């Protein structure tokens, strides 16, 4: 236990790890600040670079991006009224108001410091919840892994979008993509249409880049308007003790909401920030100042979205269930580096888990320092004309996809999945569910068949094993409850008519 | 959201049926496990048939103006079509023309397509990005980018 933390710290403090975190946080702040590049997209764009790295270093870097992006998003939200990430959308309300009053520097400072505090608190939450939780869930065999994957998919498909039916279809589409390629059991090719390139299947990383990043490029391309430029001298004005004390209640609300939303599937930073803002307004001593440049209105959402960076890792690390887009990219990175997510991760790869946890402390410190230092270069990039910025990102995406197997075929795939992602967004389908289907499909099928092999063909194994039974029942509840609600609603409407 | 759902649901239904039909082309070896390579895909296909049929039925029963509004589409959808055409052309020519030669042309055309008209920054970005990515991926990470017939 304690020695795991020591080992983890030692790994996190290695020069290569520190360098990776530094690069990750820097790119996170810059990418987060750029409108159109959310935390998950910034992480997806970085995936091709993590190939040659050890899994632990790759995860530390991506977590750094996640953390940095939460602050980066608030820079543009405050200074040019355009949230760099959805997680900072609500920060615009009071942040930009402060900027108009000439107090933008103070708003940035409050966002940075409260975000840092939220981030550090969330690492403690992660340690105190995830580590004991990992002790409970052991003894996972194929039946349990199948049930877990099934449960995770059901959860994301039904809870993270607005429409459950479309969420389910999205998850199925992801699973369909995952079945392309060589059958993991018998070695026969499936749905390859005689193509050699498809034998290896659709790489999860290509799907992640396509569905998350390329679809966003397509959205930006179809929109000729651009965001505003920032004129003037950007500075960060750190909050005084008095100001920090004044926003403390808002921070506490942010921490509570960030914790709840990080744990819930389909929550994520944007919803946490939104709810934290509303609650902070409700409980504030000066609710009338909200919307007119309240520091609390910046502190609450910016604390909440940074808290999510740690708490979202709780379901991811202990159960292998990512609650948000960014956590899904982390899951993809874990699979890429052959780290089987789920309760056994703590047992099998304690070095990876504990170094990741310890790295979050360091990355939060990096965020605090870099957020202060790189504001100017960051805004320089924000002021780059949108066509040129999109050109750079497009090139990065294409070359990144090519680099996966040094093959143009993957570039075609990234283009195709990008178009699929664009269509899915356009018609309210659920990209996160599709990504999860693609990433988990292999694990779900292999463990289904392996479990039956072990049980001698008896499907009762899924019901006889208690953990598997509970997970499958939970999955059933997740799928049925929204249907039941909808049925009742329809009946009520029919009665009313 | 009534009309698009009807069409999308029908297309998905066709996709699911075609996918199911394709499973008959999968060779099931003698030494296969109980479920074999076709069970999982067929289950998915059946679920997708049910789900997409439900989507069609729902959209047939829904009244106009019901349901969630999608995020607004951009004001320049034709740009997306041109972007796709340009990128497809780029990928088709890439193996012959080579990365270093073709990429600046493609990126320049892309920026122009997005409405950028200042020549110096446009050329600078196109060439700069190409070279930067070449150095990072081609040199540092050892990716073999397409060289094209000229340099072969």
In DSSP terms (H or I, runs of 4 or more residues), the helix count of chain A works out at 23
Unreliably modeled segments of chain B: none
Oligomer: heterodimer
Q: Bin the strand percentage of chain B.
A: under 5%
C-alpha end-to-end distance of chain A: 62 Å
Stretches with pLDDT under 50, minimum 5 residues of chain A: none
Quote the beta fraction of chain A: under 5%
Pair with the most extensive interface? Answer: A-B, 63 and 68 residues
Distance between the termini of chain B: 53 Å
Supply Rg of chain B: 24 Å
Q: Write down how many β-strands of chain A occur, each being a DSSP E stretch of 2 or more residues.
A: 2
Helix content of chain B: over 70%
Encode the helix/strand succession of chain B as letters. Answer: HHHHHH
Shape category of chain B:
flat
Major sheet size, sense and barrel closure of chain B: none
The overall average pLDDT of chain A, rounded, is 91
Helix content of chain A: over 70%
The Rg value of chain A, from CA coordinates, equals 22 Å
Structural class of chain A: mainly alpha
Strand order of the largest sheet of chain A: 1-2
List keywords for this structure.
heterodimer, A: 497 residues, mainly alpha, two-stranded antiparallel ribbon, B: 152 residues, 0% strand
């Amino acid at each position: 236990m304690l020695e795991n933390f020591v080992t983890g710290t030692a790994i996190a403090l290695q020069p290569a790890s520190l360098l990776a975190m530094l690069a990750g946080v820097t790119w996170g702040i810059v990418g987060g600040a750029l409108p159109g590049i959310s935390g998950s997209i910034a992480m997806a764009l970085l995936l091709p670079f993590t190939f040659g790295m050890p899994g632990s270093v790759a995860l530390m870097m991506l977590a750094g991006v996640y953390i940095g992006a939460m602050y980066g998003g608030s820079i543009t939200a405050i200074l040019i009224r355009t949230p760099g990430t959805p997680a900072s959308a609500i920060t615009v309300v009071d942040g930009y108001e402060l900027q108009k009053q000439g107090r933008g520097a103070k708003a940035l400072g409050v966002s940075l410091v409260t975000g840092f505090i939220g981030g550090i608190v969330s690492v403690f939450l992660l340690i105190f919840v995830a580590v004991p939780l990992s002790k409970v869930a052991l003894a996972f065999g194929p039946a349990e892994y199948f049930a877990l994957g099934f449960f995770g998919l059901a959860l994301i498909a039904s809870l993270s979008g607005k429409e459950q039916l479309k969420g389910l279809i999205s998850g199925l589409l992801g699973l369909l993509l995952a079945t392309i390629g060589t059958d993991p059991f018998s070695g026969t090719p499936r749905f390859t249409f005689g193509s050699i390139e498809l034998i290896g299947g659709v790489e999860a990383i290509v799907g992640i880049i396509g569905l998350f990043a390329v679809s966003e490029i397509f959205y930006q391309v179809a929109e000729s308007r651009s965001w505003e430029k920032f004129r003037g001298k950007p500075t960060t004005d750190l909050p005084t003790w008095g100001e920090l004390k004044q926003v403390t209640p808002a921070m506490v609300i942010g921490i509570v909401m960030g914790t709840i939303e990080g744990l819930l599937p389909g929550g994520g930073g944007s919803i946490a920030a939104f709810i934290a803002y509303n609650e902070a307004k409700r409980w504030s001593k000066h609710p009338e100042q909200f919307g007119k440049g309240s520091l609390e209105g910046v502190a609450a959402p910016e604390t909440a979205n940074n808290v999510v960076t740690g708490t979202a890792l709780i379901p991811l690390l202990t159960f292998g269930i990512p609650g948000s887009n960014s956590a899904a990219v982390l899951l993809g990175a874990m699979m890429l580096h052959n780290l089987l997510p789920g309760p056994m991760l703590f047992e099998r790869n304690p070095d990876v888990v504990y170094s990741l946890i310890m790295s979050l402390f360091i990355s939060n410190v990096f965020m605090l320092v870099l957020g202060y230092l790189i504001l100017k270069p960051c805004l320089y990039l924000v002021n780059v004309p949108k066509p040129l910025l999109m050109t750079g990102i497009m090139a990065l995406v294409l070359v990144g996809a090519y680099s996966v197997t040094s093959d143009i075929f993957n570039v075609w795939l990234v283009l195709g999945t990008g178009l699929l992602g664009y269509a899915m967004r356009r018609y309210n389908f659920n990209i996160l569910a599709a990504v999860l289907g693609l990433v988990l499909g292999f694990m779900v099928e292999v463990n289904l068949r392996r479990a039956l092999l072990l049980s001698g063909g008896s499907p009762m194994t899924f019901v006889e094993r208690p953990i598997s039974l509970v997970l499958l029942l939970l999955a059933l509840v997740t799928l049925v409850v929204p249907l039941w609600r909808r049925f009742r609603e329809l009946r009520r409407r029919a009665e009313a008519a | 959201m009534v009309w698009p759902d009807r069409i999308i649901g029908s297309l998905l239904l066709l996709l699911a049926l075609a996918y199911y039909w394709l499973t008959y082309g999968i060779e099931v070896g003698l030494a296969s496990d109980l479920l074999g390579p076709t069970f999982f895909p067929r289950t998915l296909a059946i679920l997708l048939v049910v789900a997409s049929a439900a989507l069609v039925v729902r959209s047939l029963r829904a009244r106009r103006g019901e349901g969630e509004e999608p995020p607004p589409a951009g004001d320049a959808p034709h740009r997306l079509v041109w972007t796709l055409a340009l990128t497809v052309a780029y990928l088709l020519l890439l193996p012959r023309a080579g990365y270093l030669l073709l990429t600046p042309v493609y990126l320049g055309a892309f920026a122009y397509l997005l409405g950028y008209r200042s020549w110096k920054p446009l050329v600078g970005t196109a060439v700069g990005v190409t070279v930067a990515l070449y150095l990072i991926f081609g040199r540092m990470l050892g990716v073999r980018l397409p060289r094209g017939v000229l340099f072969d």
